[in-house]
Q: What sequence folds into this?
């Protein structure tokens, strides 16, 4: 059975209506792209109180300070959660999860880092996933996922309606690179942009996307919806 999930940043989760958590069996909280949108233990408690049945903590590439911050958050989350999923886009975090939280934290490979892993050999992926206890590879590349062979060892969480293209630590909303962030993206809708040549892009958080749609492949075990409106 296909698992359905919804992906929210912490500010979006604060505005979410309870009906959303009845429709989706799992909630992603955080961001795969901006470390100023890391979730905290209070976000998890609020989601549980609102009716979220399963929770995945979404994390981006991290600085050393942000990595330390998130590991502290994860310890506090595990005071009330028996186990938790973490979507990982930083290989330093992946190693820290293996050393400190194996058995209580289930890692996923998030979209920015999975771009390369999706193209690696099945033999390597089997070993790597077993070594780190990775449950799913997350992707939004419809063409790649659709054409995975029947023999693929991968299990995919497919994200839509945005396909990730690029990201930056430079905030697109403030033009600054600062840890003291007031989250100006919280009240800003996704923005439509046009590249030279006419291609339509979407700015969401601090990353750039184009539209995609769910693709069919038996490797896809989870569909993850991001409810943004450009």
A:
């Amino acid at each position: 059975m296909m698992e359905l999930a919804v992906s929210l940043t912490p500010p979006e989760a604060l505005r979410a209506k309870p009906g959303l958590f009845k429709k989706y069996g799992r909630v992603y909280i955080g961001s795969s792209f901006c470390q100023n949108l890391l979730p905290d233990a209070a976000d998890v408690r609020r989601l549980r109180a609102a009716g979220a049945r399963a929770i995945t903590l979404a994390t981006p590439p991290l600085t050393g300070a942000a990595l330390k911050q998130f590991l502290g958050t994860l310890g506090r989350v595990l005071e009330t959660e028996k186990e938790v999923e973490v979507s990982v886009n930083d290989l330093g975090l992946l190693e820290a999860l293996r050393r400190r939280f194996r058995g209580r934290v289930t890692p996923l490979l998030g979209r920015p880092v999975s771009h390369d892993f999706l193209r690696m050999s099945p033999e390597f992926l089997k070993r790597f996933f077993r070594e780190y206890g990775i449950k799913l590879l997350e992707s939004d590349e419809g063409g790649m996922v659709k054409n995975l062979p029947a023999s693929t060892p991968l299990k995919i969480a497919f994200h839509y309606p945005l396909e990730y293209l690029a990201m930056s630590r430079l905030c697109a909303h403030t033009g600054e690179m600062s840890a003291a962030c007031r989250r100006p993206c919280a009240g800003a809708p996704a923005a439509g942009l046009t590249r030279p040549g006419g291609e339509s892009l979407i700015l969401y958080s601090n990353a750039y996307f184009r539209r995609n749609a769910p693709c069919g492949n038996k490797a896809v075990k989870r569909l993850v919806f991001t409810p943004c409106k450009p």
About this structure: The helical segments are 10-15, 19-23, 41-50, 64-77, 91-101, 111-117, 122-132, 142-146. Residues 54 and 201 are 31 Å apart (CA to CA). The chain has one domain: 3-163+213-225.
